[in-house]
Specification:
Number of strands: 11
Pathway: Purine metabolism; IMP biosynthesis via de novo pathway; N(2)-formyl-N(1)-(5-phospho-D-ribosyl)glycinamide from N(1)-(5-phospho-D-ribosyl)glycinamide (10-formyl THF route): step 1/1
Structural class: alpha/beta
Family: Belongs to the GART family.
InterPro entries: Formyl_transf_N, Formyl_transf_N_sf, GART
Radius of gyration: 17 Å
Strand order of the largest sheet: 3-2-1-4-5-6-7-11
Organism: Spiribacter pallidus
Strand content: 25-35%
Distance between the termini: 41 Å
Protein name: Phosphoribosylglycinamide formyltransferase
Length: 219
């Protein structure tokens, strides 16, 4: 990578709290990158207004305007390539992207998932963790590959599960850790410390290490 700032496109569907954490990291100098566009598949997504308040260009590509998923994916891919995005950050983007799209951007596409992957792929992770009596939960930042929530994990943040937790309380604590973890990983990528090769994470030149873990310090 040259000395140019990393060009990021952020894909959202909702309020954009992880987007805000990344914006804050850029504005404080924690992240050496530029958000070139925030794209939402939902016109009313709150994250669009967050981006506008910080002078970031936004765009809506409404999935309801496309008869087929593949057509939507092609339009989105074309926009990302026109923007010359170096990294595509999924931040609460509630669309499953097709294999062709993911393969087109493989190694440039990251996501944050609310579990300690590979455990609890898919939805309703907080409810499932509590129902199973788990003592730890958290979130994972991973590269995206065609298999859902199965890409190589870069880093994780861990929170304890309390005996009186509800899904909502647990979700709040996990989300707070997401806001710490995601900007950190984005900066690692911006600094050239993290990449993906042969579907393994390369961290500081070392391949296949155990994901970095960030602890809350809670008991």
């Amino acid at each position: 990578m040259n000395n140019a700032r990393l060009r990021i496109a952020v894909l959202i569907s909702g309020s954009g709290s992880n987007l805000q954490a990344i914006i804050d990291g850029i504005e404080t100098g924690e992240i050496d990158a530029t958000i070139v566009r925030v794209i939402s598949n939902r016109p009313g997504a709150g994250g669009l207004e967050r981006a506008r308040r910080h002078g970031i260009d936004t765009e809506v590509i409404d999935h309801r305007q496309f008869a087929r998923r593949a057509d939507y994916d092609r339009r989105l891919a074309g926009r990302l390539e026109a923007l010359a995005a170096d990294l595509v950050v999924l931040a609460g983007f509630m669309r499953i992207l097709g294999d062709a799209f993911v393969e087109r951007f493989e190694g440039q596409l990251i996501n944050i998932h609310p579990s300690l992957l590979p455990a609890y792929r898919g939805l309703h992770t907080h409810e499932r963790v509590i129902a199973d009596g788990q003592r730890q939960h958290g979130c994972s930042v991973h590269y995206v590959i065609p298999e859902l929530d199965a890409g190589p994990v870069i880093a994780q943040a861990v929170v304890p599960v309390h005996a009186d937790d509800t899904p909502a309380r647990l979700e709040d604590r996990v989300r707070a850790m997401e806001h710490r973890l995601y900007p950190r990983v984005v900066q690692w990528i911006a600094a050239g410390r993290v990449a993906m090769a042969n579907r393994s994470v390369v961290f500081d030149g070392q391949t296949g290490q155990t994901p970095v873990r960030l602890e809350t310090g809670e008991t």
